[in-house]
Amino acid sequence: MSQSLVRFGPYQLDLADRRLSRGGQTVDLNARYLDALILLVAAEGKLVAKDRFMDEVWRGIPVTDEALTQAIRTLRRALGDSAASPQFIETVPKHGYRFIAPVEWSARAVEESDGQAAQAATRNTEAPHSAFARMTLAGCGGAITAGALVGLLYGFIGAAQPSDGSGSAVSILLVLIVVSTLSAGVAGAGISAGLAASRFIPSPNAWWTVIGGSLGGMAVGAFANLLGNDLFRLLFGRAPGAFAGALEGLVLGAAIGLATLYTGRAVFHRLALAGLLGLCAGILITLVDGRMMAGSLQELVSAFPTSRYRLDAIGQMFGEDGLGPVGRAVTAGFEGAIFSAGMVWALGRAAAGSSARSGAQDESGQNAGPL
């Protein structure tokens, strides 16, 4: 018999082998959820606060309260437990959770349990600065992908216009792709950095995630708008009309923050929700007289009438002369949907990769010995 075997109800938890079983059959749990169960059992009926879960199970990994809620929900499902009438895991509202079932330990398990739980959590640790950089780079990469797609579309629209000899269609296409990609990348870096930063706040919650994304977007949007206006004044003696800035970053960041809170496993559902929230954010931006990519381009065209680029083709689809209110709303909604879905997709892949690495480290940690 293992020296670190724990029994509760019909279940056995082997701390040395990191295995939960019932009647000899293994109960499947991923490494992090098993760490959470070990932490609860090791507390022997005492309250385990949310902060302790964050520190010892998700140490260094930026997560929200929803991740803990999902972990407890999964543990209850695995144990056949119920939140309404718990036999194993009791919720202490606004504070944490308590393991309430009688627990029987083997000879040395009591002495080793805390160390085993801490070692299990440590194996799943990622340095805070690495987690921040990973999340920021992932969001930036998703935004760049979305920006390239939007730039490609608008570039084709511009390249399809009759040429007056002032520039080739290929030049217009490349310029629009580069401008859109860079703009989206900067915005994505700001929003994802805000999201990552919000996860390091003690006792993070959903509101902090939304606030972090919106503040990150607002900060980088305000800086880019200020820099762009100064650049145009310096080079051309005047600045164009209103274009994307703090307001747009604030709204989009909040939408993406909301989208990242959804923890469903189906990728399609996550992307659909992200796209819907981005669509609504884009339309909301136009309703408060903000500008997305197409609206900003239209402002530049209006400020510099000799510009070859035109968005008339989009306006004509809606019976407008140039890019009118309807055209602006449609393009802004489209851009918001692509941008939000691209970022959420990239952030989701980064999180899945981190979890997979944690699981692999946990498995290798059990089998590794001195070289």
How would you describe this structure to a colleague?
The chain is an alpha+beta fold and 371 residues long. It folds into two domains: 5-125, Winged helix-like DNA-binding domain superfamily/Winged helix DNA-binding domain (Arc Repressor Mutant, subunit A, Orthogonal Bundle), CATH 1.10.10.10; 128-359, no CATH class. The protein is 64% helix and 7% strand. It contains twelve helices and eight strands. The protein has helices at 31-42, 50-56, 65-79, 109-123, 128-159, 169-198, 206-236, 246-260, 267-287, 293-303, 312-317, 325-367, and strands at residues 5-8, 11-14, 19-22, 25-26, 47-49, 89-92, 96-99, 104-105. The strands form two sheets. The chain has a five-stranded antiparallel β-sheet with strand order 4-3-2-1-8, with no helix packed on it. A hairpin with a 2-residue loop joins strand 1 (5-8) and strand 2. Helix 5 runs antiparallel to helix 12 and helix 6 (169-198) runs antiparallel to helix 7 (206-236). The radius of gyration is 26 Å and the shape is elongated.
